[in-house]
# Entry
Amino acid sequence: MNDEQYLKHCRSLLGEFAATLTTRTKQLSQDHPLRELAAGFQSLASHPCDFYEQGPDLVARLFDTYPEFTPTFPRQLLWFFGANCLHYMADEELSEFQRLEDIRAATAP
# Structure
């Protein structure tokens, strides 16, 4: 998988997560913070120009404020966003993702 394919895959994962979170929060009031967070993920998935800037902040808000939703967040995106998102991963996960990244880099054209 080359870098462009990897980016497309990660954007797809983000879109799926955003759609699911939006669906799960529809019954909440418009001004509920979780619904606003879902709208933030949906906006990021639809307009990826701020992907690297806003993504880690949204992830931190989700994990710190609503930890019950964190199991539904794709672990691949934690690795993809990097930076502070890596703090939400166990050492074993980090090692495994690094191994997979090395394989991906070695096989990319």
Observations:
- The chain is about 70% helix and 0% strand.
- The chain has one domain: 3-107.
- Residues 3-107 form one domain.
- The radius of gyration is 15 Å.
